[in-house]
Every structure is written in C-alpha cells, then in structure tokens.
Specification:
8 helices, Rad51_C, 133 residues, single chain
Length: 133
C-alpha cells in the first residue's frame, strides 16, 4: 500500500478526497474561519501555541455544558525527553489512534528535540535521516 501517491491524479479525485475530510472545531470561531473551518483530520496543522489553547478546559463547562473530568479523561498526554523517546511515543500514538477513536494528535515542537539531539552541521545528515522516520 502506498502512503503517498507518486504520480498524477485527476482534480476530481483530489476534490473527492477533500470532501471526505473531517474538520474539528477549535472552539474559537475566529481561528476556525482563519484555517478554513477547523483542524483537518489526516493532515498536519502546525500552529504555535495551539496546544496551550486546548488547555483552556475550564471554559468547556460554561461554553459546552460538558463535564470537565469526562473531557480530560478522553485526552491522552505524554511528554518526551529526547528524539528517540519522541519516535517511540509517536508509534504508540499511531497504535492508540488505530485502536480507539482519537481524532486529533497535537505535537508541541515536532523538531525541537531533534535539533538538540543532533546539533551542528556535522550531524545534519543524521538528523534529517532521524526526522524522515
């Protein structure tokens, strides 16, 4: 199975795939409008400080009338300490998303640990290889 199409496709096929996307609203109508309706599943959306935005769970009760404890129990959180640990956690996250109904993965600084673990021009090739995993 190919993960990335290597050739051409028709614009209609692209349109059909795009029409099947699910967008998850952020809770901010202004941000949703800015990014075209919400965060798209199946894609990488990088927005600085977005992870901190989701920690505003106190407003969940007042805005959506939801139990904060129930909401927090449905959010999996992990902290990684080096690039190898990050790769391991991403593998575990992929398994969790396949087994459960998690719909959104937020990674705060996808490349930061790689920059610190592989510093300098001498390790640039090794860093790029590690990032390509």
């Amino acid at each position: 199975m190919k993960l990335v199409p290597m050739g051409f496709t028709t614009a209609y096929e692209v349109h059909e795939r795009r029409s099947e996307l699910i967008q998850i609203r952020t809770g901010s109508s202004a941000l949703d409008r800015l990014i075209g309706g919400g965060v798209e599943t199946g894609h990488i959306t990088e927005v600085s400080k977005l992870a901190e935005l989701f920690w505003g769970y106190r407003s969940v009760k007042s805005k959506f009338n939801m139990d904060c404890k129930h909401v927090l129990e449905n959010i999996a959180v992990a902290r990684c300490y080096n690039s190898d640990h990050q790769i391991s956690l991403l593998t575990m996250a992929a398994a969790m998303m396949a087994e459960s109904r998690y719909a959104l993965l937020i990674v705060d600084s996808a490349t930061g640990l790689f920059r610190s673990d592989y510093c300098g021009r001498g390790e640039l090739a090794a860093r790029q290889m590690a990032l390509s995993k």
